[in-house]
């Protein structure tokens, strides 16, 4: 049983949120001005629904951003295939677009309500979900408490806890226990994640593997791929993807070092495309000619950098190369998901700061499909070696494809864990026909 102190902390959080709630409009307006909120759908953040609730059983999925949305897409499709309605909430405009592209009308998309009691209560009272499925590490106190108060089962899928997040929760064990005890089940990505959730008070916990391995390869526009491939011709290419500040300039340094040897084209895909202007300015200041996807610029022979400043087109950029550096790993911390380049036939390079994807990188590196670089100089040497050594590049690509295949199975394991919660809803759905939504 959780301590009185933890329950007092949760009560304080609730009443503080209630006091702040009337004044969050200016915060949302500021986010909307930066393109981080959809002004036309801002009421959804207060828990107001924008579409009717379909009849019959309904599962609420929450995925914070793009990565989580992609990860749970196959799981959502499996549940929809069983005739159960799904409302999917996300917290960003980019993830909303990804949900629309990958799921279309198969789900109802809403923006996640703010973690204040009035908004969460309004959302739950309207949608009345039979089950809540949360992706990865989204622990919102008021949402968890309100779901628990209504006896709605909560399952965390593809669960993971970064070193930093785990350390933060360990400093507040009573509060962690008061929250995690509300979870009916945690389905973790790895044994390490599972043990961390148990330490924080979650029971039961099972391990599934990473759902991102069971997703389809990111889609692409075949016509755009043909056009860019023709423009590139015989030039050698490499990509720096999911980059953070400083890593784009590192890619520019690598390009300068290697361009004279092989007529190189460097593809740079920032993790946050809204940084496109700043990235272009920084690279142009180095004397590099930048072509941007958003402008429809042609990849003429004198173009140095192809700036992929769009959302949802990673499948296009990765299909233009066989060597990919995965960012947020050289100067920033945490790393980004290396599975997409591996499944699309790229030899993977990364900096050493990959704490959030440690097990994935360990498996890729063990099988010879990913290599870690210490600094920009080592990155340049790695890119140069892979571009000039066809046998090694092909060996890494083949190893990556094989490793991804070996890692598959998380979707099956997750569905098995969810059976006690999903099967009764399947029966309920059959007894209460609900149309095509």
TrEMBL record:
Kindly report, in one word, the top-level EC class recorded for this enzyme: transferase
Q: Does the keyword Kinase apply?
A: no
* The keyword Cell division is annotated on this UniProt entry: no
Q: Which residues form the 3-deoxy-D-manno-octulosonic-acid transferase N-terminal domain?
A: 41-214
Cellular localisation: Cell membrane
Give, as in the UniProt entry, the pathway in which the protein acts: Bacterial outer membrane biogenesis; LPS core biosynthesis
- Keywords, sorted A to Z: Cell membrane, Lipopolysaccharide biosynthesis, Membrane, Transferase
UniProt xrefs under NCBIfam families: PRK05749.1-3
- Which named protein is this? 3-deoxy-D-manno-octulosonic acid transferase
